[in-house]
Amino acid sequence: MWKLSALLLAFVSCAAGLNILVTNDDSWASANIRAAFDALKADGHNVLLVGPAIQQSGKGGTFVLPTTNITHPGGEFDSIPAGAPFFGADSQNGDLFYFNGTPSATVTFGIDIIAPKKFGSTPIDLVVSGPNEGQNNGPFLYTLSGTIGATYTAVERGIPAIAFSAGNGTHRSFTTNTGEPNDPANLAAQVVKNLVAIIAAGVNASQERLLPLGVGLNVNIPTFGPASNCTAPPFVFTRLTGGATVNSIAIDNTTGLPVEVDLVATGVNSNINGVREDPGETPTSADCFTAVSIFSVDYDAPERIARPIQHRLRNSIRSTQF
């Protein structure tokens, strides 16, 4: 189990002035996204927030654009009145925007429409998605999570991106955050700030990328804080596979109706890619560790697996007439 050295944090000199686009799937008015925005701004970054107008969890990478203005009952937590335009800025802070689309569409709107007005001709250095209200562990959740959907949408566009998901999962408005350091939203925001500082350390973002092209990070923060036994979860390198679950179906003996049951399945946990000695992010973040998984958006099987299959099927495929 490889830990990102806690000592490194003491020596990190934050690369101030990164152009960061913050987004999520829990809405632009959630406590977590606003706390992350504030923490990154306080650390010297140039931050723009573009989040969905309403809760958009579980949308994965679906790309749905608005076809009307904001409809009844309005934005999440009454943050936008019904009838308002399909996008807009906070009246008190022109760096906070909502967009009435899915997370993938929202981050794309931020990239193509809002960011050029904020950052000018300079590129976005990093997209930060989250922290989500609840964890998103494993390949099955990778395809379902709107938080991760916004992240891999940005990676597909060539922009380094990180998805953050927090075990402290209460869906709540930013207006409920009193600013106490031990507020779960503020604790998660400090994790975001610290990891961004680690990634930015020693990197001149105007000359090199923070992450390789086509690569992003999936970060799962455990439930932690004063109300738990976990107070300072260290970063641990993990992989998406390993102890991950998928949905299976059983019949409830009482109701006779189908129910969803988590299943640790062989297919989703096949260790095809990734660093083999790294633990899976699911069991890791169930303990007092923050799981950091590196993913790519190249879904092709590795050549060592693809070549033998091609060799076995090549003659049959060539001779088949359609």
Automatic annotation (TrEMBL):
<dbReference type="InterPro" id="IPR030048">
    <property type="entry name" value="SurE"/>
</dbReference>
<dbReference type="InterPro" id="IPR036523">
    <property type="entry name" value="SurE-like_sf"/>
</dbReference>
<dbReference type="GO" id="GO:0046872">
    <property type="term" value="F:metal ion binding"/>
</dbReference>
<keyword id="KW-0378">Hydrolase</keyword>
<dbReference type="Pfam" id="PF01975">
    <property type="entry name" value="SurE"/>
</dbReference>
<comment type="similarity">
    <text>Belongs to the SurE nucleotidase family.</text>
</comment>
<dbReference type="GO" id="GO:0008252">
    <property type="term" value="F:nucleotidase activity"/>
</dbReference>
<dbReference type="InterPro" id="IPR002828">
    <property type="entry name" value="SurE-like_Pase/nucleotidase"/>
</dbReference>
<protein>
    <submittedName>
        <fullName>Sure-like protein</fullName>
    </submittedName>
</protein>
<feature type="domain" description="Survival protein SurE-like phosphatase/nucleotidase">
    <location>
        <begin position="20"/>
        <end position="224"/>
    </location>
</feature>
<keyword id="KW-0479">Metal-binding</keyword>
